[in-house]
Design brief:
This protein is mainly α and 204 residues long. It is built from six helices and three strands. It has one domain.
Length: 204
């Protein structure tokens, strides 16, 4: 008879564990999650090759302008160097065309990867981050941006946040260029010359 309370306790404990496990599984199933679906490897490779061609122009332009002291914090000196570098790039790339890097056939796959990250409830936070945090089209920017290839990105305009999940979905970039958003337009920005390299309108 002394064993009965123990047997009952074990039975209740087992039921409790089972219920808690079931609740945990249910809660996990209800949590919105989006899998990262990156741009296909062949398309990513094609894109990166086009970026590499631009970076070769950037490197050549750097060799044509006076060097800047390493780790300088002089804003005026940095701005002057960017302007000189931008002019040198414009000389080497005088007539850029939209889609040279974000080609028409890449637009489809890149847009699909972006749309996957911002769709539905699961992508709501990512979408809000892109459109609100530093996005020049959010209404908080003091400066309007004209998306002109080889044109300068205004120093007074904010730079949008690009969420990690979006970066994981897009082709990896080398040092010297970066992704940013202006409204729903994805841009490729030269971080050394502070100019717009290419744009992908209505990216998502």
């Amino acid at each position: 008879m002394r064993m009965q309370p123990a047997i009952k306790w074990i039975s209740v404990s087992a039921i409790t564990v089972a219920l808690l496990t079931a609740m945990s599984v249910f809660a996990t199933a209800q949590t919105p999650q989006l899998a990262v679906q990156p741009v296909p490897k062949d398309d990513a490779k094609d894109f990166q090759e086009r970026v590499d061609k631009y970076l070769a122009i950037q490197k050549k332009a750097i060799g044509k302008v006076p060097s800047m002291p390493k780790e300088t914090t002089d804003a005026a000196l940095i701005s002057k160097h960017q302007l000189q570098l931008a002019d040198a790039i414009r000389m080497l790339r005088p007539k850029p065309m939209q889609g040279e890097i974000f080609t028409p056939w890449l637009k489809t796959t890149i847009s699909a990867a972006l749309k996957q990250q911002v769709k539905g409830k699961a992508g709501a936070d990512t979408k809000a981050t892109i459109l609100d945090e530093g996005n020049p089209k959010s209404g908080e920017s003091p400066t309007a941006i004209k998306l002109t290839l080889n044109g300068a990105y205004p120093d007074t305009a904010p730079l949008s946040t690009v969420p990690p999940s979006v970066l994981m979905a897009l082709p990896t970039l080398k040092d010297g260029v970066e992704y940013r958003f202006v409204g729903r337009t994805l841009i490729l920005r030269d971080t050394k010359a502070n100019i717009i390299v290419d744009t992908l309108p209505n990216a998502f």
